[in-house]
Amino acid sequence: MMAPEKIGAFFDLDGTLLGPPSLEWRFIAFLLARDELVTRDIARWLVHFAKTIVADRRGATVGNKHYLGGLRASLAAEWEQSLADETPLFYTAARERMTWHWGQGHRVFLVSGTLDCLADVLARRLPGPVGTVATQLEVRQGCWTGRISGAHLSGEEKGRAVRNLAARFGLSLWQSYAYGNSMSDLPMLDSVGRRVAVNPPARLRQIASSEGWPVCDWRPAAPTPLARLDLAAKELR
User: Fold this and answer.
1) CA 110 to CA 129: how far, in whole Å?
2) Which pLDDT value is given to residue 188?
3) Contact partners, residue 229, CB within 8 Å, separation at least 6
4) CA 56 to chain centroid
5) Which of 44, 47, 63, 191 would be 152's cystine partner, CB 3.0–4.6 Å?
């Protein structure tokens, strides 16, 4: 029997463990509310976008963090403090699934394209040990440069990250689990023997169905019209 600590559970973040808006958009909203982001920061992002969109579409969009250039890296810690009294960000079913893995003695990891400083914040809000691999921001003299360090963690980079973690911790990929919600998670899902499509769009759902993967919908059920009327009535009382 495989030792439980040799089994990994790899989770995507945005759309898999928590719903919209994404972590990065939540952080942007925090920066805007604090007046940390100003017009020149947005302009810097747009200039880089215009210069690189033809040659490097991914670098011009998901890899473009120039709006953060010159901002204090400590802002991530301040954002974390602002979340202290917030309702838990994770889907309830997602937390339950992670709790099951901890109970089994498995190693749990977040593998996400979001910013590493934001993924680390989410990891600290979980009740069990979690490793994180995410897109790293370049920092100089305590400030973000607006560039990423290394590659943006999506697509094939996610699959590579999972394989690197397996090599580092001596994990059996064939016995390990991966959870993702988008086509860009496929390389991560294909790296393990136990793949789970979570809240999948039609194309990923079709792949999961054809290959016999479990499909989970961790999003809370939308209230029925009757439930919405009942809630409205309570608010009027």
Assistant:
1) 11
2) 98
3) none
4) 23
5) 63
Q: Is 85 designated active site?
A: no
* Measured distance CA(179)–CA(54) in Å, rounded: 32
Q: Tell me if residue 230 is catalytic.
A: no
Residue 14 DSSP SS3: strand
**Helix pair angle (75-82, 23-33), 10° resolution:** 100
Question: Is residue 23 within 8 Å of residue 118, measured between CB atoms?
Answer: yes
- Give the predicted TM-score (pTM) of the model: 0.86
Residue with tokens 């973000």: 144
pLDDT tens digits, 158-195: 999 999 999 999 999 999 999 999 999 999 999 999 99
Helix (H, G, I), strand (E, B) or coil at 87: coil
C-alpha distance from residue 143 to each of 11, 74, 126 (Å): 29, 8, 27
Helix (H) or strand (E) holding 220: none
Q: Report the pLDDT value the prediction gives residue 87, as an integer from 0 to 100.
A: 52
The gap from C-alpha 63 to its chain's centroid, in whole angstroms, comes to 15
In the set 14, 41, 116, 185, the catalytic residue is 14
